[in-house]
Amino acid sequence: MITITFPDKSTRQYEPGTTPLQIAESISTRLAQDILAATVNGAEWDISRPITEDAEIKLFKWDDAEGKHAFWHSSAHLLAEALQELYPGVKFGIGPAIENGFYYDIDPNGNTITSADFPAIEAKMIELAQKKESIVRADISKDDALKMFGDRGEEYKCELISELEDGHITTYTQGAFTDLCRGPHLPTTAPIKAVKILSLAGAYWRGDEKRNQLVRVYGITFPKKKMLDEYLVMLEEAKKRDHRKIGKEMELFAFSPNVGAGLPLWLPKGAALRDRLEQFLRKIQKRYGYLQVITPHIGNKNLYVTSGHYAKYGKDSFQPIHTPEEGEEYLLKPMNCPHHCEIYRSSPRSYRDLPLRLAEFGTVYRYEQSGELHGLTRVRGFTQDDAHIFCAPDQIKDEFLKVMDIIFYIFKALKFDNFEAQISLRDPNNKEKYIGSDENWHLAENAIIEACAEKGLNARTELGEAAFYGPKLDFMVKDAIGRRWQLGTIQVDYNLPERFQLEFTGADNQKHRPVMIHRAPFGSLERFVAVLLEHTAGKLPLWLVPDQCAVLPISEKFNDYARRVAAELNEADVRAIVDDRNEKIGKKIRDNELKRIPYMLIVGEKEAQNDEVSVRKQGEGDKGTMKITTFAKYLTDEVSSMINQ
């Protein structure tokens, strides 16, 4: 018998060769109906694949990310099977599951596929799914794999196989379709009940602009049609909330081909919005003892060779800048961390200096492929709200708690009420993948776990998900329409202090290595603004919105009074603009509501005589008439209640 250990540490005995699906059946029929995927000793596992030795097991349903991944991975194969039937001779690249659905990169090989073909592809996928085809895993030798896919003219698959290690190659077959794949997959296509092909895009093979351009077919599937219907409604809502559309309407940012793809231009209102976010965080950081620093936008190539960033980003990033000096090379800064390490090294440090908290709104540059650029969420130049805390190992927990306080404060002020956290730890069975001593890893991991417990944060723990340089805590925010975005992150790093030979003198008068904590609550200002615009549909919090109120004179006769109102409000720290266009008041109200301005102040003869404004709040309608000074206090009190919670 083999012993199976469950997440709650309970155990059961089973015959060798028992599958996760059979284990689920032994617990309850309902569980067996619901599970889609499993992990066995931390490795992804088909629920129909036998287990032959003692193991720790986790079972995953649709609501788990792992369950959706297996469902959508199998759906990618179903898409490929349908395309193979509909378009004979089509060749296949890769077809992974993604955060929402899946895609498959294909070489049409003379076939033409357009959006008009989507209904036929969907119908074929449903037809194949209804056959309840078994999805069968098989081990295959490298030679046999090369022959199998070579005989079919699948040069893309053969290229992938040529790079794999013999003895670790598997295929999955359903019906007449066989694919090179690691898995995991569903046991059959039966659970796939609803299908939608979403879009087509161009994608260079392996992301290389010098290679063939393939067609990327995006799709999504669900176990119930109702789920698909709800998802399509959400997609329509997402279109309305697209930050690129809202940013244009609110006059926040623009892009210019003359400047370059992926390099946003912040317009005056957008720059003011960014500045308020920066000032908001600067104020919090000052309270927590951060020291603001500024570093250059470029650095000597050797700096990034030392840090390891050149090995990681060099090939796919902006290429070195050559100076008139022979052999001298600089790089556009891909990360702020190496610069901060050099600031730490700029003078001797004692244990009395720690923790040292260095913060910077530092702009960094990475060359993203043109096909992957997307508004502000994927750009080539972006500003991180970066901070690096240099501390002794026994200070990690306290620093973690303080960073968590900052992140919670920001989420509350911006009404990101729905979020999840994940603690990423190292794989205890594969320690050679990581750097740092067991003692330091134990300290760091326990510090994160204890910090989360103290804050009452129900964080999910994942073994093997730590970075090679240390454990981390990531925050995933759900926006108003249920999409997940990773925003805050806190990472423990033993790597850079080692690479840069950072030291401090301890109380024992000996040299010690500090630990480095990376921290970015916003992540990047560009991406954060995009998420915020889509979360709020552009109706930003009153303290943050570029224009808090628009003064609307009902005719030209009251333009001068409107300007005086705006001047008095701006003097009282209320951001007010005047719309003195020669338009009817109804159009002015509609136009300014489109710009997401929270308050409209309508002024005419009565208001001018009494130093008053007629107040209209977006989404709530008329709020009555107020003195100018009364409205200014009303608005500033509302702002104060938001950011001083």
UniProtKB/TrEMBL annotation:
Keywords, comma-separated and alphabetical: Aminoacyl-tRNA synthetase, ATP-binding, Cytoplasm, Ligase, Metal-binding, Nucleotide-binding, Protein biosynthesis, RNA-binding, tRNA-binding, Zinc
Free-text comment on the cofactor: Binds 1 zinc ion per subunit.
Gene Ontology CC entries for this record: cytoplasm
Enzyme's top EC category: ligase
Domain of life per record: Bacteria
Cofactor(s) required for function per UniProt: Zn(2+)
Catalyses which reaction(s): tRNA(Thr) + L-threonine + ATP = L-threonyl-tRNA(Thr) + AMP + diphosphate + H(+)
Domain Aminoacyl-transfer RNA synthetases class-II family profile: from-to ranges: 268-553
EC number: 6.1.1.3
Entry-linked PROSITE patterns: AA_TRNA_LIGASE_II, TGS
Assigned protein family: Belongs to the class-II aminoacyl-tRNA synthetase family.
Protein name as catalogued: Threonine--tRNA ligase
The organism of origin for this protein: Muribaculum intestinale
Organism ancestry: Bacteria, Pseudomonadati, Bacteroidota, Bacteroidia, Bacteroidales
Name of the coding gene: thrS
